[in-house]
Sequence to fold (95 residues):
Amino acid sequence: MRNYELMYVIKPDVDEEKLAEVIEKYNNLIANNKGEVVTADKWGKRRLAYEINDCREGIYMLVNFKGEAETAQEIDRIMKISDEILRFMIINRDK
Fold:
């Protein structure tokens, strides 16, 4: 298994209940695709460097996980079509 780091920014207008659902959704996505979440840190709401989709703030999440290349590809595919995600980045930490 490879080590990955996932940083994603959630729209700031979600309430705490919806935020917990979004975080759980992506943690389950990793687990269901042969991966394992090592750490998941909620950085909270922060100001963006530039406006994205009429949003000036976003809720930042940092997730370290272990998985295969297919795990990262599936996360990438799902996050590209998600409405609640403003931006995301997946980094292979082994390189």
Observations:
- Strands lie at 2-10, 36-52, 55-67, 85-92.
- The radius of gyration is 13 Å.
- The first strand starts at residue 2 and ends at 10.
- The longest helix spans residues 16-32.
